Amino acid sequence: MDQSPRSPQPKRATARGLNADGLSSTPNDQPAVLVVDFGAQYAQLIARRVREANVYSEIVPHTMPLDELLAKQPAAIILSGGPASVYAEEAPSIDSGLFSAGVPVLGICYGFQVMAEALGGIVKRTETAEFGRTEAAVEVATTLFGKLPKKQTVWMSHRDAVVIAPDGFTVTASTGGAEIAAFENREQRLFGIQWHPEVRHTTHGQAVLERFLYQGAGLRPSWTTTGIIDTAVDAIKAQVGDGHVICGLSGGVDSAVAAALVHRAVGDQLTCVFVDHGLLRKGEREQVTRDYVDATGIRLRVVDAEERFLKALGPIRNPERKRKIIGREFIRAFTEAEKEIIETENHDGAIEFLVQGTLYPDVVESGGGTGTANIKSHHNVGGLPRNLKFSLVEPLRRLFKDEVRAIGEELGLPEAIVWRHPFPGPGLAIRIIGKVTRENLAILREADAIVREELENAGLGRTVWQCPVVLLADVHSVGVQGDTRTYKHPIVLRPVTSEDAMTADWARLDYDLLERISTRITNEVDEVNRVTLDLTSKPPGTIEWE
């Protein structure tokens, strides 16, 4: 357990600083930590960990010019890891002027080595690589490690190491493969560590990050829930004015929270559209059309499109063709609904604004950050056409998933929606390996409902990130039930744990729970006589089968 002294922790942070175009600027009273991304798989995780310390953070590319970086007036900077070697040609680097700019800096892994080399230290390839769990010895009378255990388990990922520290730096940690595993120059407020404090495998990683933020950079944990919804509402009002707004509800937490914020801001200027393509899980239509509407008072138009989608899918088995067909039909259904809204709700002119539940990882991964008046690819169902000229309202654009859930709870949204497991826009269609028929959907829907119910009963609804249930509709398996030979379908369970879906591990579910799930499915779901468990992590496998 982390033992460092910590500043008083206010309520968990959610969102703040949302401006009229949905992008978000740092509020005048809100210091920002910039995470400089050198191509690290963990850059987003670093930013999230900073926010968990109740300090606002943003990710910027390492290619950002120094003057532009400093113009953001960062309260501190963290240099991320990366896959390159600092001494290689064309290796990512950063202007060495950063280290004399008076801004507190923490270098992590590759960022640690970049700092060392830029300030006159030496980085070399070593004979002993370190990957995974490693024991580190730390000096406790230091900024990063004060009052933490002298021996710590840390998560390493390096072949290169700092072999000579820059002048003026004190070595503060070592491992078997790196005599210089951390250093600091307290006077200049420059710090570096070779391992990854942002991953949970590093036992005191969050404490180290917080010591950098609170003691090293002198920041206070001020990124809190107080006033966050009001700030978002004010920004939406400023953007929308008296315009009309439309939102496509998917049943997921992102669109649900985004719509609830917009509704709080502009009321009945918002109309939500729920396209029921018949590919949802059991009870999800009711969650949206009854529970969500009751909780928010949002005006909702439901489009019953099951027949349309099933007819369009027909005999298609290829998952990419399924996705494209579903995306195309969604576009048509949504466009028709928009026209009907304009005709029936006495709108004087077109609907100007479209709400999207874009999250911060979407922005980062797309290389974005600038707004656009034309709709971008719809992140749930495959893309609205570019000729639909909406201005986007994206109140969640600077938030991570856990922050969105916190806002949803504060807004009083139904728990089933706030904590709904991630679910693909094409729905059960891509969890059926084979043709999408009404019969196959019914089989999968019942099996999926059993799995979700048992996970909830076991108290694992929030522990398991996601549990796709896959129907192998093109496969039949021989079985015996009631002394009779059967020839039915197998079902695959795919429970995973994750923090951001970029990587995932298979969930170690209790055997008794797995037995209950298997027994219930084979007893209660016709046409299923075998239940299998997918034990593949991501990578190499993806979370969804298709």
Description:
With 546 residues, this protein is an alpha/beta fold. It is built from 14 helices and 20 strands. The chain has helices spanning 43-52, 66-71, 110-118, 205-216, 228-240, 253-266, 284-296, 306-313, 319-344, 360-365, 401-410, 415-418, 438-457, 511-524, and strands at 32-37, 56-61, 76-79, 105-108, 122-138, 151-164, 170-175, 178-185, 190-193, 245-249, 270-276, 299-304, 353-355, 391-393, 469-471, 477-481, 484-493, 496-497, 505-506, 528-533. The strands form 4 sheets. A 9-stranded mixed beta sheet has the order 2-1-3-4-9-8-7-5-6, sandwiched between helices. Strand 18 (496-497) and strand 19 (505-506) form a beta hairpin. Helix 6 (253-266) packs across helix 11. The two termini are 40 Å apart.
Alpha carbon gyration radius: 26 Å
Look at the structure and give the mean pLDDT: 85
- Helices, by number, come to 14
Structural class: alpha/beta
Shape: globular
